[in-house]
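batch job 7 of whatever, protein = Agglutinin C-terminal domain-containing protein
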Amino acid sequence: MTLSRGIYKIHNVGVPVAMDFGGPGSSDDGRKIFVWRSEDSEFNWNQLWLVEPVDGKTDTFTVRSLIAGTYMTLAGGKYMRYHPSSISIFFSGSSANETPITGGRRSSGSHVPRQEWIIKRSMDKDKESYKMKNYASGTFVDLYHGGSTNGTPIYGWKGDFKTHGQYSWHQYWTFKRGSLSSAEIKKIIIGNKFHLNKSPSYKSYQVDGEYLILPQNLWEEIWNCDSTGLRGKKRRREIFDYDDFALTMKAAVAQWGAKKCDTVDGFSIFCGLMLGRSQKSPREGRAYNFTISDDHSEVVFFDPQDNKFITESDKIDCNASHFYV
């Protein structure tokens, strides 16, 4: 199965580590990518990667660090091209074992083969894993000696898509997606059962966007930030009403995300807005925020007045008419 465009955590199959790229100076060219201990459900900006397909190349992707903004790059392989008036230096990516894999900048619209990776499903039917082959060198992303120690580097190493040797798991990786597309979110919303009026409206700001789904504890953390002004805020009918709470929370999530991730564009941080009428008092409006469950199967509502998630739709006092993303 081909990977979808999205934001992923990339774990090694054999040991509980994930590709990591953080710390001071992480946006500098040439900084080595390593692994760090990681639980599957743990949210860590340093371990989030935007995987995007390369136009015109089957199963080929760029892999970009959200925290640094640089692209996974195979080092080495320098060669020179001579022109009558100048010498141009190019880097094709070395095919030697133990070649460092680093972060590197990429010009808009450029094609740099050593920053492109053929990512294909493992031939092992028992594992939902992938191997990553560099487009330029033909070598694979390899966890050095299968190490589980924090800071263990990853290298380019010879291999193939078929090998199942004793140490082949060094080159096997799982991709856990942490984002959803506009179309996928719409399908989840329409497929859930809510108190809906006869013709609910769904609108997505991005026609074909990718949305990072935050864990619920981060929503609670954002709500508590002094900058939101929501903590201790009291509803004032019409002056600062239900919709104002929900709009403020949506803006707070966007501002928090822009501050946390100031190097990469091309994705949004998900915070939905639901508008409707009170079922108890139909003349009054109601508004809630919502997100998607961790398993990407259900809508989970959030009350921005008291910083609480509502998991049962029958406890929501809203005959929903509009969903905005």
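notes: The mean pLDDT is 86.
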